[in-house]
Amino acid sequence: MFGQKVDLIPAVNNQQTFAGSFQLNSETGISFKHSDSLKNEAEYLKSVIGVASNFNTQLRPPPGRKGNNILLSVNSELLEKGKETYLLSIKEDGIKIQGATRTGVMRGIQTLRQLFHPKFHAPWNVNAWTLPLVEIADYPHYEHRGFMLDVCRHYFDAAVVKEYIDLLAFYRMNVLHLHLTEDQGWRFASEKYPLLNTISSTRTELNGEQYGGLFTKEELKEIVAYASERHITVIPEIEMPGHSQAALAAYPHLSCTGEDVEVANDWGVFKEIYCAGNDSTFIFLETILDEVMEIFPSKYIHIGGDEAPKQRWEQCDKCQKRIKDEGLENEQELQSYFIKRIDEYLADHGKSIIGWDEILEGGLCDGATVQSWRGYEGGIEAANQEHKVIMSPTSHCYLDYGLSSIDVQKIYSFNPEPADPNFTNSEFIIGGECNMWTEHVPDRKTLDKMVFPRLIAFSEALWTSPSESMYPSFYERLQTHYPVLDKFGIQYGLEMVPVKLKDSIINEKTHIAIEHAMPEFKSMYKWRNENTIEEYENYTSPITLNQSGIFVVQPLKNGQFYGEEILQSYEFHRAINSKATYKSIINKWYTAGGEKALINGKLGSLDFRDGNWQGFWGKDLMTEIELEKSTEIVSVEMNFYHYANAWIVQPKEVIIQTSEDGKKWTKPKVVKLDKPAYDNQKKIISARVDLKKPTQSKHIRISAINSGKMPEHHDAAGEPSWIFIDEIIVK
C-alpha cells in the first residue's frame, strides 16, 4: 500500500526511474557480507523499517534469498568519487545498495528512506510498503557539510541533539559542530575542574531566575555513538581565548585581572578573556582538551578563536611580558601564539584544529582549518596559504538571521567557492556549515522554526552544488517534504517572507500595498486600534492610509494560513508626505527609505533592522520639515530606539523650533531625556514636545542631540553611539 514517489533532497547526481514497483513486506530480508562490516548499517535499516511496520525484517547471511531481499555491500571501485559514493538499485525482485565504504552504504540507506511514503517516518501498522523502481548513482560535491548548534546561550538536551542528528543523516549532511562553551554557559562536564559543572554551567538571568544545563560525559558519549551509527561526525568546540567568561567565573585566576566575574546573562562580546601570559591558562585548557579527546574521536577539535577583545591583554603585565619574551609585535601576534600553542598540543595527540577566521590574525599555524564567517575573505586568505577552509559567511549561512535576510532561496544559492575569477585555490574549500546561534532561540519550537526548512536547502547546496536554475525544481520537491517533517514532529517555519508592505503616494495620499512573494500567496488584512478591531478583508488593491493603528496582514498559501500575522503600526498625522530637508547625513545602512522615512506614518518595531528605523552614526540628527500648508500645531513627538548592546542610545535632548516663513524661528523648545540605562534592554523611547499654545506654522526644525561616546564601563567604551528614529509625528 501507499505506493508514492517522494522527491529526493538533496537532488541525486543520476537517477533513472522505471515502470513497476517493489513490495517490501514481512518476507523481505536484509543481507550483507560480514567481511564488509556492515552489521551496523543493516541493523539501522532493520530498525527504521520495524518502527514503521507491523513486521520485522530478518537479517540473512549472504548471498541472501533470491528475490525480495535488500543486499548491502561495499564496492571499493566506487572510491574514485569519494567515500560517500553509493549506488541504489530497486527492482521488482529486490534492492541493492553498494557503497564505496560503509559511509556510502549509509548515505544510500537515507536515500532509500526518502522513497517511502511520508507515513513511513512515524510508527505505523502497515503490512507492506510500495517503492518505485529506480537506479541511482550518487556522491557529494563537498566533503564537509555541517550544521553548528550553539547549546550555550540556550541549552538543548541530548534528546534534541539526537533528533537533529537523525535529521542531518536524513538529508545526507555529515557533520554536527557542537558549540559547548561560551560566556553565557559551559556545557561540558569536567572531572578535573568541577566548578565548571556547578558555577560555569548556570547563569542568573536578569529576572533573577537560574538558567543552566550540562552534558555529562556519559551523555556526550551517547551522542557521539548515536552519530557514529549514522556516519555523522561530531566536532566539539571549546572557545578560546575569548568567549570564556563562564569559565572565568569559576576560575578567575585564569583571567588577566583575577577579579570575580559572573557568568554572562547578556548577549554580545565581552572583554573578559583567558590570560595569555599565565601558564595556568594553558595547563587548564590542555587538561580540558584531554577530557574532550577522551569522548570525541573526531580528528578535528574546534577551538573558536573569534571575537577576542584585546583590552585586557593590553593592560596585563603578564601578557605584555609574554609578548616581550616571545619576540611578538603586538596583541594580534599574541593571539597567534596562543592558538599555535594549543595547536601544537593537539597535534601531539593526533588532532587538528578548526578556528573561526580570526585565527588568521598574527599568522596561521600549520595544519589549521579556517572556518570563514565574516564573509569569504578569510577563507580566500587561508586557501591562498594552502589551508583547508570551511565557508560559513553570515550572508548565507546564519540561521539565527531572519527570513528577510536569509530565506530558503538565499541559502540555496550558497556556493562555498568565491565568485572571484582570480581565485584559483578551490581545492582547499572542503565545504560549508550553517550556524545556529541561540541567543534568541529559547525553546525547541523556535529552534525548529529557525532551522527548517532552510537546513534542507543548505543540504542540497553542498551535496549537489546546484545552479540557480535548479531552484524551482527544489522548491517543488520541498513541498513534498513537509508531510515527512510533520511525521518527524518538526515545527518548521516559513520558506520566505510571504508578503511585504510597500507605501506609495497616489493623489497626494499614502497608500499601503501588499506585495506577495509567490503567485500562490494571497493575504487578508484588517485595522486594529484602541477603539475597534475590524474583520479581515481579502486584499485586492492598495489601501489608503487615513487612520492610526496597527495594520494586520494574515498571509495565505494556497488558501491556508501561512505563518503568523504581520503587524505594522501607523500614525496618521499632519506632516505625512510633507517635505523634509536634512542637515545631517543618514547612515547608508539604516536609511529606512530615505528623506520621506520620518514623515510616512510608519512606525518602527523592537527589531531595529525592520527597515523603519533611520540611523545617524556618532552625529546629531537635524532636519527641517515643510508642511504642505500653514497648519495649527500643538505637539511634535518622536520615537527613539535604545539598545546599548548595539551602541544605539537615546539622545540627550530634543529641540524643536517652528516658523511660518522658514526664516524667522520661534525660541527653541528643549526636552531633556532621562539618563540612559546601558543595559541589554531593547526599548522604544518617546520624546514629546508640547507647545505652550497652538501655533500656526508651515516649517518645523527638529534636532536630537547625540548622547556621545559609549561610557567607560561599556564593552565598546569610547566608540561613537547611534541615534535611531522612526517618525516625526506632528499634531
Q: Summed up, what is this model?
A:
Helix content is 22%, strand content 30%. The chain has 731 residues and is α/β, with parallel strands linked by helices.
Give an overview of the whole structure.
The chain is of the alpha/beta class. The protein folds into 4 domains: 14-138, Chitobiase, domain 2 (2-Layer Sandwich), CATH 3.30.379.10; 144-481, Glycosidases (TIM Barrel, Alpha-Beta Barrel); 499-567; 579-730, Jelly Rolls (Sandwich). It contains 17 helices and 32 strands. An 8-stranded parallel barrel has the order 8-9-12-13-14-15-16-17, surrounded by 6 helices. A 7-stranded mixed sheet has the order 1-7-5-6-4-2-3, with helices on one face. Strands 26, 27, 28, 29, 30, 31 and 32 form a 7-stranded antiparallel sheet that branches. It starts with 13 loop residues before the first strand and ends with a strand.
CATH superfamily of the largest domain: Glycosidases
CATH fold category name of the largest domain: TIM Barrel
Q: Main β-sheet, in a few words?
A: 8 strands, parallel, barrel
Helix count, DSSP H or I runs of 4 or more residues: 17
Helix-residue proportion? 10-25%
CATH A-level architecture of the largest domain: Alpha-Beta Barrel
Radius of gyration: 30 Å
